[in-house]
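Why this split exists: single-chain examples teach little about how molecules sit against one another. For that reason, every record in the complexes split bundles all components of an assembly together and asks for one structure covering all of them. Below is a record exactly as it appears in the raw files.
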Amino acid sequence: MNLRLALAIMKKDLLDALRNARLLVVVLLPIGFSVLYGYLFRDTATNIEIVLYSPGPSDLAERLAGMRTVSLFVVAAPEQLETMLSDEAAALAIELPADFDRALRDGIRPSVELLVGRDEQDARRAQQLILLEIGALSGRPPLVDFVEKRPSAATSESEREAAADQSLFEGLSLQAYFVVLWVMMGITMNGTFLVPTLLVEEKEKRTLDAILVAPPSYADVVLGKMVVGLIYSLLSAFAVMAVNDGFQGDIALSLALVVLASIALALIGLLIGGLIDNLTSLNTWSTFIMLPLMLPGLLAAIPLGMLGGVLRTIMQIVPTYQVVQGLSLSLSGKGVETAGSLAVLAFECGVLFVLVLWSLRRREA
Amino acid sequence: MIRADSLRRTFNHKLAIDGITFEVEAGEVFGFLGPNGAGKTTTIRILTGQLRPTSGSAWIDGHDVVTGRAKIKPLIGVVFEHQNLYERMSAWENLTFFASLYGVPNARVHEVLEHVDLIDSARAKIKTFSNGMKQRLLVARALLSRPKVLFLDEPTRGLDPASARVVRQTIRDLGDEGTTVFLTTHYMEEADQLCRRVAFICDGRLVALDTPRALKLLHGKRQLDVLLADGKRETLSLEDPAAADKLAGWVGGGQLLTAHTQEATLEEVFIRLTGRGLS
């Protein structure tokens, strides 16, 4: 494999795809949908409930109450914080120490207790807002120690079963839910329409023959086109995440998931392209292939416990399920739990690369 | 420079080429002639590493075309039968892309575009090009890397006379410069003009291989057709010793108006050898 040759192919395809109106639509469609949905659901998605206990008066409570995107509940006793969280009336509970405001003014680092609710993503956003307001109050970078506590964990058998029956989207805000769906849709559309078109057009017009009698090998062609799919999928995912406030939770893990899923879907696209020889057939097959690929991602909303064993296993093999699962977890701040999705996607990328090379080399035989 | 030994290729049990053996010397312009479906393109695809032979072997400059494919790539240029260009890109963009694959500078792109008389259309999109312009661009693309061996698959098919002339002149120039040229065509006159040697292929088999002159002499009639002043036509056999005296008498007596040798054309030789035409 020669990186210089793969990059030359990538550069050519990036420009050529921009001149192909059909491919541009594929790239822009998920972004357009995400902008539309982001706009339509902006208000409901950004409202965060915070419950606060303060032994004495605090300017922080006033500042938080004055924010348009925050619904603040002030309780009279610290015991009420946990009750409100377990009732899901708030995403985050905060317990201020006595003389919190004075401590801030005097530069003494006060200790603030936080209780994180079920919607971890909203809780983290609430924490960021509180930090900003504390900084505004003290007129300097916020000097506080957050002591994080979890509400009493569910331990009974019935609660454990209920947790297993939860959908991946439980605990995700509507906005985060849309981020996950549009990112998955963008990656899948790029993989099943854009990437195979790049290859099948080369086969149909025989330009691939011209490339292959020149120095590039099949591996260079696959790598170059895979990177084109990756770049357009990343652009699509970044735009969706930027529009919908999706850079939250474990951002690095979210990006790693998007990169691996984009590569896997681009390779699936190249496999399709390797097996199909003309654009007319591709248009038909892409639609048939895209739907079952997207389905596991969409079905991720259904709790796994409700699905049969075989169906569950099949769903978990499909990269879209893994990216939806992984992104849902990483956006909720449960990044550690995405390791499985990352491993499955990385393995699938390796297997798919070999399969794509095989499908192309058949042409010589 | 090119060597094929018992090349055989089948597609779904149908024989495309059947035990072809030949050699092309360095710097030779070699014609590979036959009707459509005879196996010309299959042979080129095997020699350029695009297709594996079912059996037999072939070498370019000593490198096996199957096992040494990476080594033959920098040595060869190919003008395909199909006009396989990027239609949404300009001529310049098409060639700079391939220049980047071969690692040659853009100055060479300018040079080859000038060579095929397309420099003024360099920035125009390919979809606006005529057939002839596209064909000349294909030749330019094949020449980018200054290949030692150039394969041309029906390079003048369907071209206007001006474009065909440019392509033929380019082939002549390359031959003069020492490039080995492997030319498939079913235009016999073209092969006669350009090639040092030609091979006839029919139904996947090589039926003849020699210089055009030798083939024509071997399979043609050695006769002279003369037209005399009194309107009479006579045919003299060049193998008959008495023919010289007859001819001298007509010339001396001022009776001879025209005299034409009846050397066969390559097409007639092909028909004689295969029992079928070229189209």
